[in-house]
UniProtKB/TrEMBL annotation:
It comes from Octadecabacter dasysiphoniae. Keywords: ATP-binding, Cytoplasm, DNA replication, DNA-binding, Lipid-binding, Nucleotide-binding. Belongs to the DnaA family. Residues 324-443 are annotated as: Domain IV, binds dsDNA. This is Chromosomal replication initiator protein DnaA. It is found in: Cytoplasm.
Length: 443
């Protein structure tokens, strides 16, 4: 086939897919020959061939045929080599890959304290870190802030670095991924971007809830994801909630995420917090020589600071710093004093709004109906349940509660509370509901 015809096909493709895509994907190709319905195209690397074949293959075939060729299939060659399948992407690490793959030295499996709430996540992370054949893909870790997701992910990267130095391991947070994607689009470097992410052996993406509402980035993430999973490359992903609960995440991504192993890190319990504090204390011995901590202090912290491990560590750190300054043994009184702000913030205060929200969810009614004027049984009963819970679980007065229930009078609240008090005795369904809701709210 004459060059002029290929030039025409290229011009048609440019018109069809736009100058940007054309420049990245079609321009680097050249036509080698066409025989027996197969058009052979030379691509600069296997990735381009692969991508073009999947994305633009049909269009190219169409335009070749319009130029009078009878082509049914495309075949890509790389640097004169025979086919795409045999040629692997370059094995050497791109520079930036090495740069962002440095795991945080503090976050290792050794420094991770295992307890009931995180034992599954820990076991799964350990398994992946062995670097053996992939048994579950992706590993999806989720849980609230400060429960150790990032720690575990770095630990995996760390251990793989030691056990399997031959593997390309990339740790990246989802917002870095978004940033890189946008920069690549802007700088017309999509090809480098794709190749960069698709040449890794283990991809670790932290905090993917940041992809919420970012459609085009999600699309790219999805392609990267599929490309790696198809090649049996391990993916490890984290978010602050379960895949199904991430808003605006495309259904395709959700279902792919759920195909692997989904493990959650539960909120810490007292034993785990105490264990973490003891482990931390050992590391402080060298940093703050001579500082003494009275018995009962760690227990006090583990009991009072239940929000997240980061805050817990911060508190211990502050105590040590103070103790070394004043040269005294840290006592519980001193801890109370020096950590009063943290302790206050950790005292969980339940709000009327939270209660209303939880109760409307439980009974599957709209929040606006709970607060609104309608008095049908199906709305009035949940409303009274919410009033009762507000009275029991908060320190708000009846008039204050009334105001938050669509400006109702305090006598209405009183009536509602009494009604539920009565029903609790006679109606076991209501009694169960109250117990369930109370536990959910106090958790
Ligand atoms: P997340 O990513 O879930 O928000 P991180 O992994 O950043 O939480 O953890 C917050 C801090 O708590 C880190 O300093 C981490 O080392 C520490 N931490 C969390 N869980 C544990 C644990 N089980 N053992 C030791 N340290 C922990
Ligand atoms: Mg994190």
């Amino acid at each position: 086939m004459a060059n002029v015809e290929w030039e025409q096909v290229k011009a048609d493709m440019r018109a069809a897919i736009g100058a940007g895509n054309f420049k990245s994907w079609i321009e680097p190709l050249s036509l080698v020959n066409t025989t027996e319905g197969v058009a052979r195209l030379a691509a600069p690397n296997p990735f381009v061939g692969d991508y073009v074949g999947k994305t633009y293959g049909d269009q190219i075939i169409y335009h070749l045929n319009r130029q009078g060729m009878s082509v049914q299939r495309l075949a890509f060659e790389i640097d004169g080599a025979a086919n795409t399948a045999a040629a692997k992407p370059a094995a050497k690490k791109p520079k930036s890959l090495t740069a962002d793959a440095q795991p945080d030295q503090r976050f290792t499996f050794d420094s991770f304290v295992v307890g009931k709430p995180n034992e599954l996540a820990h076991a799964a992370a350990k398994r992946v870190a062995e670097g053996g054949p992939t048994t579950f893909n992706p590993l999806f870790l989720y849980g609230g802030v400060g429960l150790g997701k990032t720690h575990l992910m770095h630990a995996i990267a760390h251990e793989l670095g030691e056990k399997r130095p031959d593997l390309n391991v990339l740790y990246i947070s989802a917002d870095q991924f978004i940033y890189r994607f946008i920069s690549a689009l802007r700088d017309r470097k999509m090809m480098d971007f794709k190749q960069h992410f698709r040449s890794v052996d283990v991809l670790i993406v932290d905090d993917i809830q940041f992809l919420e509402g970012k459609e085009s980035t999600q699309e790219e993430f999805f392609h990267t994801f599929n490309a790696l999973v198809d090649q049996n490359k391990q993916l490890i992903i984290s978010a602050d909630r379960a895949p199904g609960e991430i808003r605006d995440l495309s259904e395709r991504i959700k279902s792919r995420l759920q195909c692997g192993l989904v493990v959650d890190l539960h909120p810490t319990d007292y034993e785990l917090r105490l264990g973490i504090l003891h482990a931390k204390q050992e590391t402080y011995v060298n940093v703050y020589p001579g500082v003494e901590i009275a018995t009962g202090v760690l227990e006090f912290l583990a009991h009072r600071i239940s929000s997240n491990v980061r805050v817990l560590e911060g508190a211990l750190n502050r105590l040590y710093a103070l103790a070394s300054l004043v040269g005294r043994t840290v006592t519980v009184e001193m801890a109370q004093d020096c950590l009063s702000d943290i302790l206050r913030a950790s005292d969980r205060k339940l709000t009327i709004e939270e209660i209303q929200r939880k109760v409307s969810e439980h009974y599957d009614i709209r929040l606006s109906d709970m607060l609104g004027p309608k008095r049908t049984r199906s709305l009035a009963r949940p409303r009274q349940v919410a009033m009762w819970l507000c009275k029991q679980l908060t320190s708000r007065s009846l008039p204050e509660i009334g105001r938050k229930f669509g400006k109702r009078d305090h006598t209405t609240i009183m009536h509602g509370v009494r009604k539920i008090d009565e029903l609790r005795q006679s109606d076991s369904q209501i009694a169960d509901d109250l117990e369930l809701l109370r536990r959910a709210l106090e958790d």
